[in-house]
Design goal:
The complex is a heterodimer.
Chain A: E1 3-8, E2 11-16, E3 20-21, H1 26-38, E4 43-47, E5 53-54, H2 56-71, E6 75-79, H3 83-91, E7 99-101, H4 104-108
Parallel strand pairs in A: 2-4, 3-5, 4-6, 6-7
Antiparallel strand pairs in A: 1-2
Helix pairs in contact in A: 1-2
Chain B: E1 7-15, H1 21-34, H2 42-62, E2 72-80, E3 83-90, H3 114-121, E4 124-130, E5 133-141
Antiparallel strand pairs in B: 1-2, 2-3, 3-5, 4-5
Helix pairs in contact in B: 1-2, 2-3
């Protein structure tokens, strides 16, 4: 799983550099998110703009990140979802769980 | 969807490893793009076929007790007369499809959405034993 990370005002942006987020690479994403949280990076923004396809394993990895961030009183938000990816969150009702922003800029500027 | 007498039949065997998910998913997407006369949302169909095949293949891999490279997953796709049939064969011990619960939307878990997605996107889903393992059968009417 290729992930670029960058820090902005105490928030960490994870940009996924994979077209597919599926059972082949989702456990890697889950581990990398957990590692960041354990290192004290608890304000996470996951940039999914480059992800064209997500399956149930990918959704599960993101939900794991959200739950682990919540346990640490952190934040875990998503940004840049392509329409088909967004539709998977709606189909599984997970759009009610996550804060989802159109872009990383929007997520960084949230109140 | 097909002209009279036209049908598509794909029979693919790959090792039961997640590295082949993208290959199978891409084949499914390309299939949706070459269907003659399909009047629905072709991009949505491409994604949905990619998804159900990805989920079915993951299911086959996960239910195989010995995750050995020599084990295989066989994917058969048959399209004719506006009907899509997908069979995903596995060599595992199988599971009870009827015992798979729907996800709890109010208290979401990290796992347990694969069969839900397949059931949501396909018209009929069945799982049965075969001589050499099991097969997940998925059917969808294409309009």
């Amino acid at each position: 799983m290729q992930i670029a990370t960058a820090k902005h005002d105490g928030k960490t942006v994870l940009s996924l550099k994979e077209e597919r987020l599926d059972a082949h690479n989702s456990s890697d994403l889950r581990d990398q998110i957990l590692k960041l949280l354990e290192n004290g990076d608890t304000q996470l923004i996951v940039d999914l703009a480059g992800v064209r396809f997500i399956d149930s394993s990918g959704l599960g990895a993101l939900l794991s990140g959200y739950k682990n961030a919540s346990l640490r009183s952190g934040s875990f938000v998503l940004a840049g979802l392509q329409p088909r990816v967004q539709s998977m969150f709606e189909l599984t009702r997970l759009h009610r769980v996550f804060d989802i922003y159109p872009s990383v800029e929007g997520a960084l500027n949230k109140a | 969807m097909c002209e009279e007498g036209c049908c598509i039949h794909l029979d693919i065997v790959v090792p039961n490893q997640t590295r082949y998910l993208g290959l199978i998913g891409n084949i499914a997407e390309q299939l949706a793009r070459v269907l003659d006369g399909y009047s629905g949302d072709r991009d949505a169909l491409a994604y949905h076929l990619n998804l159900v095949l990805t989920e079915a293949m993951v299911n086959a891999i996960e239910h195989c007790p010995e995750n050995q490279p020599r084990k295989t997953v066989r994917v058969c796709i048959y399209i004719a007369d506006k009907e899509l049939n997908i069979h995903v064969h596995d060599q595992g011990q199988g599971f009870d499809l009827d015992a798979v619960p729907a996800p709890d939307f109010d208290d979401p878990c990290e796992r347990g959405r694969g069969i839900f997605l397949i059931r949501t996107l396909m018209d009929t889903v069945a799982y049965r034993k075969t001589d050499n393992g099991n097969v997940l059968e998925m059917y969808k009417k294409l309009e």
